[in-house]
Amino acid sequence: MPIITNLDNMLARKKMSLTELSERVNITIANLSILKSGKAKAIRFSTLEAICQELDCKPGDILDYTAENINNK
Q1: On the chain, which terminus has fewer CB atoms closer than 10 Å, C or N?
Q2: What does the radius of gyration of the chain's CA atoms come to, in whole angstroms?
């Protein structure tokens, strides 16, 4: 998938655990783990907003795009 998540990098920069973020934004650890691993198919803007607010970052700090050859699927 061409969308890359950098949630683990942002957590490391803020010296915060996934558990702590989960408690602060009221999102289950399981759902944050899915996002962190890049297996999420979608993310609500309200969820993204809560994460960005807690980590004091922008959506582009968490999500990135890399070109992928669509013909290789």
Answers
A1: C
A2: 13
Give the whole-angstrom CA distance, residue 13 versus residue 55.
Answer: 9
Amino acid at site 63? L
Give residue-wise pLDDT tens across range 3-31: 999 999 999 999 999 999 999 999 999 99
Domains of the chain: 3-72 (1.10.260.40)
Residues 32, 18 contacting (CB under 8 angstroms):
yes
Please list the residues that pair with 3 across neighbouring strands. 65
Q: In whole angstroms, how far apart are CA 30 and each of 19, 67, 71?
A: 10, 28, 32
Count of positions (residues) in the chain: 73
| pTM, 2 dp | 0.84
Residue 69, token pair as written in the block: 């050859």
